[in-house]
């Protein structure tokens, strides 16, 4: 666990709260932005009727079930299918054809993709749908594996189930909804063919022991999605994450970031922006 102990960065009490969370759940959030931590922990303080970090720390020490609630509120993510539809349109029309055309020139074409911080699975399934749709429309023979990871086990359980309410499909085209979902009661379920493409697993982007998901064995990704993850971490921790992303990509891989994210520090020189309109970068 890497703890930032700078006094101007994190208070003693907050440091101890996050240390206890790490000991209980093995989740390291000490690199998260302070404003984010204060907002989320304040919500739990309100629920537990504690007035400050010291009182909440004492509450944690005497109520082990609170760790579950704290984890939930610090790792909660909001997602839906084809979030930022314009970005997915660019991927569909430009990036995916480019990657696949290069892959088809090799002896054993296999497409490898990582959705880092996949939340409840909508992003990973959206990627799988785009690839499957392109392959079928163009009558292409190509193997595709998508590795989707998150730190939150509850989110991963929902992702593996692959069932969503209609709100999750608000940016999904009608043709896609009809071809790739089946409606069961009030929920929409991903078809089995797409489920088989995706490997969901737990992965901590700040864990120094691994640079890529264990299931992927060696990384070598053609495309990595890491959207709306970096915004929750300070610059020091962003550098750790960028190191993993860069290391796990192949020499011509693409990186997709969130709308307010961009490579920082030394990694500004290790990625080249692919388009002025989107946060899509190519490994240099």
Automatic annotation (TrEMBL):
Quote the protein name from its UniProt record. Answer: protein-glutamate O-methyltransferase
Coiled coil ranges: none
Domain CheR-type methyltransferase spans what residues? Answer: 2-284
Q: Which PANTHER family match?
A: CHEMOTAXIS PROTEIN METHYLTRANSFERASE, CHEMOTAXIS PROTEIN METHYLTRANSFERASE 2
Pfam families per record: CheR, CheR_N
Reaction catalyzed: L-glutamyl-[protein] + S-adenosyl-L-methionine = [protein]-L-glutamate 5-O-methyl ester + S-adenosyl-L-homocysteine
Q: Please provide the record's keywords in A-Z order.
A: Methyltransferase, S-adenosyl-L-methionine, Transferase
What are the EC numbers? 2.1.1.80
Question: Superkingdom of this entry's organism?
Answer: Bacteria
Q: Which organism is it from?
A: Paralabilibaculum antarcticum
């Amino acid at each position: 666990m890497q703890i930032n102990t700078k006094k101007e960065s994190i208070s003693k009490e907050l440091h101890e709260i996050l240390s206890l969370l790490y000991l209980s759940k093995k989740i390291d959030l000490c690199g998260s932005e302070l404003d984010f931590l204060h907002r989320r922990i304040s919500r739990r303080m309100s629920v537990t009727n504690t007035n400050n970090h010291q009182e909440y720390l004492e509450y944690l020490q005497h109520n082990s079930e609170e760790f579950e609630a704290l984890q939930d509120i610090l790792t909660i993510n909001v997602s839906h299918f084809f979030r930022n539809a314009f970005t997915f349109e660019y991927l569909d029309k430009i990036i995916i054809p480019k990657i696949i055309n290069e892959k088809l020139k090799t002896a054993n074409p296999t497409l490898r993709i990582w959705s880092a911080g996949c939340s409840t699975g909508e992003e990973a399934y959206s990627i799988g749908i785009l690839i499957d749709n392109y392959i079928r429309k163009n009558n292409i023979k190509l193997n595709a594996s998508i590795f989707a990871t998150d730190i939150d086990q509850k989110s991963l359980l929902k992702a593996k189930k692959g069932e969503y309410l209609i709100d999750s499909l608000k940016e999904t085209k009608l043709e896609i909804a009809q071809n790739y979902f089946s409606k069961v009661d009030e929920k929409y379920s991903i078809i089995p063919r797409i489920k088989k493409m995706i490997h969901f697993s737990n992965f901590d982007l700040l864990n120094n022991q691994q640079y890529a998901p264990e299931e992927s064995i060696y990384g070598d990704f053609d495309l990595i999605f890491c959207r709306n993850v970096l915004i929750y971490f300070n610059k020091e921790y962003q550098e750790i994450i960028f190191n993993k992303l860069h290391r796990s990509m192949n020499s011509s891989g693409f990186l997709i970031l969130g709308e307010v994210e961009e490579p920082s520090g030394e990694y500004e020189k290790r990625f080249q922006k692919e388009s002025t309109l989107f946060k899509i970068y190519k490994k240099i």
